[in-house]
Amino acid sequence: MTMLTLIGRAERVQLPDHGDQLIPAKIDTGADMSSIWATGVHEKDGQLSFVLFGKKSEFYTGKKVVLAASNYKLTRIANSFGDKELRYVVQLRIIVNGRTIKAAFSLANRARKMYPILLGRRLLHGKFVVDVSQGEPLIAAEKARLKKLQQELRKSTENEEYAQ
User: Fold this and answer.
1) Alpha carbon 54 to chain centroid distance?
2) Domain range list for the chain
């Protein structure tokens, strides 16, 4: 029987083949597949190239990752709104709470997301158990985003009241 590792709703993870930075990752038991922010995704002559994260990310190195056709696939991903899109899926080594595993990640534009990495059920299953009161969430960023949303909602409500 494999021992399950306890993790929280967000964790700092490492991609050992792509540096030693601790990167915030959101744990999402509602998502089937994990995803990672990638830019410059391009397929040519049976090779896939991309850069992890975006230029505005503190985790961006600009280092291009190039994979042979046997090391990636194209799949259709449905998001939480039911919209479907084609995405490349690659295998990456990741360290989560001291455990090194190889997992599938879809390459996605996560520029507008708070967490550049999302860990889904396929990665979690049989290895981790999630306690939402634990982990290392980006509390300040989450509070700032909530405050901004509340302000936008207030403005929207005020505008609707004036329009009537």
Assistant:
1) 13
2) 5-137
Give the integer Cα–Cα distance in Å for 83 and 80: 7
Inter-CA distances, 105 with 82, 89, 90, 123, 142, Å? 19, 5, 5, 9, 24
Locate 49 and state its tokens: 């190239």
Contacting residues for 146 by C-beta, under 8 A, at least 6 apart? none
Closest CA to 88 of 76, 80, 79: 76
3 state SS of 9: coil
Q: 0.90 cut: is pTM over it?
A: no
Q: Which CATH class is domain 5-137?
A: mainly beta
DSSP structure class, residue 113: S
One-letter-per-residue 3-state SS of 30-85: CCCCEEEEEEEEEEECCEEEEEECCCCCCCCCCCEEEEEHHHEEEEEEECCCCCEE
Q: Is pLDDT of 137 > 80?
A: no
Coil, strand or helix at 100: strand
Average pLDDT, the chain: 90
